[in-house]
């Protein structure tokens, strides 16, 4: 039977903003926004959501929210590691089936919403797609959410049957990104 599994990769290090994934934005660590969005999804909950990290502060947040925690080995926690390698590591520890759906949620996307997570999952299921990603108005993928069929992680060559969902989000990599989001949120209130 097909399952839906959520994974939030969140390593300790960051090239441009120190401890980016726990950087406080309006009193909440960045990963906290991804956790809230995931737990608000109609598809994700503490039974099928995992955080992969090498950082005790993130383990504490996982424990606080009842989320399963996968200890990421240091060789998968540097700035050159592809997310796919991290997903493969979680899969090796948990054991997914080929038809399972994997929902990868960035820890540094504080504008992420439960509604958009569900929209991506619904699109994949309803249109029998292999992969769905959010894009902005210029059709550029922001990487905040990636919904894939599990077999895609082993697929060699071009991935077919893709879908997109429109968002207008900022991935946080710098203090300037934090300031931009703070201003956006201030302007909306």
Largest sheet: spatial strand order: 5-4-1-6-8-7-9
State the order of secondary-structure elements, H for helix, E for strand. EEEHEHEHEHEEEH
What separation lies between the terminal Cα atoms?
Answer: 44 Å
Can you give the mean pLDDT?
Answer: 92
What is the percentage of strand-forming residues? 15-25%
Percent helix: 25-40%
- Write down the Rg: 16 Å
Structural class: alpha/beta
Major β-sheet profile: 7 strands, mixed
Quaternary form = single chain
> What form results from the Cα inertia axes?
globular
Number of strands: 9
Question: Uncertain runs with pLDDT below 50, 5 residues or more?
Answer: none
- Number of alpha- plus pi-helical segments: 5
Structure commentary:
- The protein is of the alpha/beta class and 189 residues long.
- The chain contains five helices and nine strands.
- The chain has helices at 30-39, 56-64, 83-94, 114-126, 175-188; strands spanning 4-9, 24-25, 28-29, 49-53, 68-71, 101-105, 131-135, 145-149, 162-166.
- Strands 5-4-1-6-8-7-9 form a seven-stranded mixed sheet, with helices on both faces.
- β2 and β3 form a beta hairpin.
- The longest helix has 14 residues, at 175-188.
- The mean pLDDT is 92.
Question: What labels would you give this structure?
Answer:
189 residues; alpha/beta; 9 strands; 31% helix; 5 helices
Write the topology of this structure.
Elements (H helix, E strand, L loop, with lengths): L3 E6 L14 E2 L2 E2 H10 L9 E5 L2 H9 L3 E4 L11 H12 L6 E5 L8 H13 L4 E5 L9 E5 L12 E5 L8 H14 L1
Parallel strand pairs: 1-4, 1-6, 4-5, 7-9
Antiparallel strand pairs: 2-3, 6-8, 7-8
């Amino acid at each position: 039977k097909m399952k839906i599994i959520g994974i939030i990769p969140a390593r300790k290090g960051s090239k441009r903003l120190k401890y980016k994934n726990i950087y406080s934005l309006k009193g909440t660590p960045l990963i906290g926004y991804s956790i809230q969005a995931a737990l608000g999804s109609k598809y994700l909950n503490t039974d099928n959501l995992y955080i992969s990290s090498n950082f005790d502060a993130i383990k504490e947040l996982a424990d606080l929210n009842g989320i399963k925690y996968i200890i990421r080995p240091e060789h998968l926690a540097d700035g050159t590691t592809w997310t796919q390698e991290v997903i493969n590591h979680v899969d090796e520890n948990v054991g997914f089936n080929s038809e399972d759906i994997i929902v990868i949620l960035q820890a540094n996307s504080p504008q992420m919403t439960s509604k958009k997570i569900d929209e991506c999952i619904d699109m994949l299921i309803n249109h029998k797609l292999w992969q769905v990603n959010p894009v902005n108005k210029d059709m550029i993928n922001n990487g905040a959410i990636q919904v894939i069929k599990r077999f895609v992680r082993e697929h060699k060559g071009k991935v077919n049957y893709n879908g997109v969902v429109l968002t207008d989000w900022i991935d946080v990599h710098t203090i300037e990104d934090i300031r931009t989001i703070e201003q956006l949120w201030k302007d909306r209130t």
